[in-house]
Amino acid sequence: VIWMTQSPSLLSASTGDRVTISCRMSQGISSYLAWYQQKPGKAPELLIYAASTLQSGVPSRFSGSGSGTDFTLTISCLQSEDFATYYCQQYYSFPRTFGQGTKVEIK
Amino acid sequence: QVQLVQSGAEVKKPGASVKVSCKASGYTFTSYGISWVRQAPGQGLEWMGWISAYNGNTNYAQKLQGRVTMTTDTSTSTAYMELRSLRSDDTAVYYCARRGSGSSPIDYWGQGTLVTVSS
User: Fold this and answer.
1) Which phi and psi angles does B111 have, rounded to 5°?
2) What does DSSP assign to residue B64?
3) Pairing of the two strands A10-13 and A102-106
4) B114: distance to nearest CA of chain A, Å?
5) Is residue B101 over pLDDT 90?
6) What is the Cα–Cα distance from A91 to A100, expressed in whole angstroms?
7) Average model confidence (pLDDT) for chain A?
8) Is the predicted pLDDT of residue B100 greater than 90, yes or no?
9) In degrees, to the nearest 5, what angle opens at C-alpha A29 toward C-alphas B57 and A52?
10) Distance between CA B70 and CA B33 in Å, rounded?
11) Smallest Cα distance from B47 to chain A, Å
């Protein structure tokens, strides 16, 4: 089993801020990492896959980086619609584990 | 457009079983797999397992082995997830989600089905 440590669990920020979320793996997963955004009462949505590839339709203020064991999601200029919870997931091996989630809230 | 439409909310007693359906449209069903993910109230996402719609191969989370069965009906492009011997900590929103072949991410999600287990 690949264990994931996602941090921080809570991030307080203001509109316009640059924010970063980290995801660390217990073993290397190459670039088999995805990031999802979830808003209250809604299903998650895919933002980034292959660690750094933006899903079609996702704003360019979202970016992903990393490979191996350390990954980062960056939102360059936080917008009001970005206040949500973000999850990383590895799809390198079974079970397909998720990070614990990072809630981005208004400061 | 890709759509995954799940069955409605369920209320079950401890020890009972539940079967959630997920009807796919907008793509070739057998070219993708279906993952199941659940989310307990106020908690994070938990991967439950995956089934290939091409050949029916499955992979289940170890903690659910023996209690969960995932199946597909290719004639109706529908996936099913059955969970047996329900406990109160199985109360959650259950999501189906599309996943490509090999090492591919989940790219589309169903709307979720709330399963409540209560005596």
Assistant:
1) -80, -10
2) G
3) parallel
4) 11
5) no
6) 15
7) 96
8) no
9) 105
10) 11
11) 6
* DSSP line for A21-57: EEEEESS--TT-EEEEEE-TTS--EEEEETTTEEPTT
Which long-range contacts link A58-67 to residues 24+ away (Cβ below 8 Å)?
A62/A35, A64/A33, A64/A35, A66/A23, A66/A31, A66/A33, A67/A30, A67/A31
Residue A54 with chain B: CB contacts under 8 Å: none
Residue B43: both structure tokens together = 């908690």
| Cβ–Cβ gap A49/B105 under 8 Å | yes
Q: Is A96 in the B-facing interface, judged by CB distances under 8 Å?
A: yes
Stretch A31-47: mean pLDDT:
97
The answer to whether residue A66 neighbours chain B at the CB level (below 8 Å) is no
Strand, helix or coil for residue A4: strand
- Give the number of other Cβ atoms within 10 Å of residue A12's Cβ: 12
Separation of alpha carbons B85 and B13, rounded Å: 9
Q: What is the pLDDT of residues B27-72, one digit of tens each?
A: 999 999 999 999 999 999 999 999 999 999 999 999 999 999 999 9
The answer to whether residue A33 scores a pLDDT higher than 80 is yes
Q: Which residue of B has its CA nearest to A97?
A: B47
Q: How many whole angstroms separate alpha carbon B23 and alpha carbon A53? A: 28
